[in-house]
Amino acid sequence: MKMYVGNLSFNSTKQDLESFFSQYGSVTDVHLPEDRETGRPRGFAFVTMDSKSAMEAAIKGSDGKDLDGRNLKVNEAKPREERGGGRY
After folding, report:
1. Mean pLDDT for the stretch of residues 68-79
2. CATH second-level architecture of 2-76?
3. In the list 6, 48, 53, 81, which could disulfide-bond 73, CB 3.0-4.6 Å?
4. What residues does each domain of the chain span?
């Protein structure tokens, strides 16, 4: 029940996202990746809802909506692809 949330403002916090998406159902986790070097948010997040119906409602209700001055891009998160280790 994990969603990808893109086009986030760098000012958006985990609490902002939890509050915003809780109107669609119970939010169980918010992961807001940060840049390794600057520590600033990277402009996207992963939000996990407690049920598929809550996730679907959140996607339908929030994709394209404004949060902190930015129009969100929200869709179901895709499984992470395996990446090579870089050694040949």
Report:
1. 94
2. 2-Layer Sandwich (3.30)
3. 6
4. 2-76
